[in-house]
Amino acid sequence: MLLFTTGTFTSGADQLLEKPGLVSMNGEQLAAFLADAGVGIDANTVEFDAAQFKVELDVNAPNPRAAE
C-alpha cells in the first residue's frame, strides 16, 4: 500500500507505517521525488511550471506547449 501526504504523518500514522508492505512519503519527500523525476519542471529554465505540472497529472488536460 502506498500512502502520501502533502504535510507530515501523525505519530499514530508513523506507527502504522512501520508494518510490512506499507510505503509512505511525506510532503517534503514527495516534492523531492517529483522534482527529481522532472514532474512539473520546465526543461528550459529548470524551474517549476504549474501549467506543465497540471498537464502531467491529467493526461486529458490541454497541453499549453502543444502550439510551440
Chain-wise SSE layout:
Elements: E1 2-4, H1 11-16, E2 23-25, H2 27-36, E3 41-42, E4 47-48, H3 50-57
Parallel strand pairs: 1-2
Antiparallel strand pairs: 3-4
Describe, in plain words, how this protein is organized in 3D.
With 68 residues, this protein is an alpha+beta fold. It has two domains: 1-37, no CATH class; 40-68, no CATH class. Helices cover 35% and strands 15% of the residues. The protein has three helices and four strands. The strands form two sheets. The protein has a two-stranded parallel ribbon. It has a two-stranded antiparallel sheet with strand order 3-4. Strand 3 and strand 4 (47-48) form a beta hairpin. It is elongated and about 45 Å long. The N and C termini lie far apart (39 Å). The model has no long low-confidence stretch (mean pLDDT 84).
